[in-house]
UniProtKB/TrEMBL annotation:
<dbReference type="Pfam" id="PF01842">
    <property type="entry name" value="ACT"/>
</dbReference>
<dbReference type="GO" id="GO:0004106">
    <property type="term" value="F:chorismate mutase activity"/>
</dbReference>
<dbReference type="InterPro" id="IPR045865">
    <property type="entry name" value="ACT-like_dom_sf"/>
</dbReference>
<dbReference type="Pfam" id="PF00800">
    <property type="entry name" value="PDT"/>
</dbReference>
<keyword id="KW-0413">Isomerase</keyword>
<dbReference type="InterPro" id="IPR036263">
    <property type="entry name" value="Chorismate_II_sf"/>
</dbReference>
<keyword id="KW-0584">Phenylalanine biosynthesis</keyword>
<dbReference type="InterPro" id="IPR036979">
    <property type="entry name" value="CM_dom_sf"/>
</dbReference>
<comment type="pathway">
    <text>Metabolic intermediate biosynthesis; prephenate biosynthesis; prephenate from chorismate: step 1/1.</text>
</comment>
<feature type="site" description="Essential for prephenate dehydratase activity">
    <location>
        <position position="257"/>
    </location>
</feature>
<feature type="domain" description="Prephenate dehydratase">
    <location>
        <begin position="87"/>
        <end position="264"/>
    </location>
</feature>
<keyword id="KW-0963">Cytoplasm</keyword>
<keyword id="KW-0456">Lyase</keyword>
<keyword id="KW-0028">Amino-acid biosynthesis</keyword>
<comment type="pathway">
    <text>Amino-acid biosynthesis; L-phenylalanine biosynthesis; phenylpyruvate from prephenate: step 1/1.</text>
</comment>
<dbReference type="InterPro" id="IPR002912">
    <property type="entry name" value="ACT_dom"/>
</dbReference>
<feature type="domain" description="ACT">
    <location>
        <begin position="279"/>
        <end position="357"/>
    </location>
</feature>
Amino acid sequence: MTLESLRNDIDALDDQLLTLLNQRMELVRRVGELKRSTNAVIYRPEREKQIIDRLQTKNNGLMNRPAIEAIFLEIFAVSRNLELPERVAYLGPEGSFTHQAAESRFGAMSAYMALPTIRSVFESVETGRVRFGVIPIENNQEGIVEEAIDLLLEKDLTIAAEVQIPVHFTFATQTENLAEITQIYSKDIAFRQCSKFLNDSFEGLKAELVPVESTSRAAKLAAQNPHTAAVCSHIAAKLFDVPVLFDNIEDSDLNRTRFLILAKNFKNQPSGSDKTTIIAKLPNTESPGVLAEFLQEFNARNINLTKIESRPLREGATFRYWFLIECEGHSDDQDLQEILNHHAAEVKLLGSYVRVA
Ligand SMILES: O=C(O)C(=O)C[C@]1(C(=O)O)C=C[C@@H](O)C=C1
């Protein structure tokens, strides 16, 4: 077969795909009408997971799960926009990893607001300026984002979904000759996480490492000066139009950051593979066994705990703590409901949501 005839076949399939996508959007438009008439929630992460799971089991071609997910998450994002355009705030600046996390769920067509602080993201959801807020919660190498955890206690928001993205850094520059680079911009932490690449590539060369406040800022600076470079996210290089010379330059490919999607009064239906986050303010934690007894209730019901963080209560001059606890399962599951009911006075449910493997 010639290239031309293969391309003709591709064109014919693309025509069919477009027709099918339009038919799908017509159904989605009707779902949107139905939902608006009953005031139902547009974003249904558990339904999206169900669709992707089903397609994965039916799949017998070259598409793997990440490919199915990438294409269908974009379709869902377009669908949701058609049903009701929803605004999404994220911890900026534009081109940050949080921006990347937001786009991975809400697609390229949603209306985004980059905000300067995690607190401002919480507040924009709280006041209804946006429907969803995306914030980082932890990195598997660097640990938790304390400000985000504390705001979960302070504010009255719920968790609609979690997103995990691998932290990949790119080396972006306008020059193709490394010897011409005089300055490399990035965040301190990114220099640390890419030290092997930087040491190997610039051994004997004179490039200076210049720390700046964000990797997006680094990309912007590299866009302005041809003899500089940025260690930044792919999305930042794309945003500021700086050519990517090397991709995935980080020392460890196990580096992942977890983000939460926040909303007001959001409740997911059980998906069959969920996680639940609660806040526990237990009384008398100075007495022996209070926390152990509480955790024993999970153990007794065979509920797997996936996280426990202690944070200061900041009540007077004491050393007392509250706990952020995450476990497998959904708050509608009978065993988890028993615990929540039993401790209704001291436990606040932040949400049950589809668990990212
Ligand atoms: O099934 C729904 O509730 C829809 O709104 C449709 C749809 C889809 O495109 O399939 C879109 C958005 C939801 O997040 C889940 C699924």
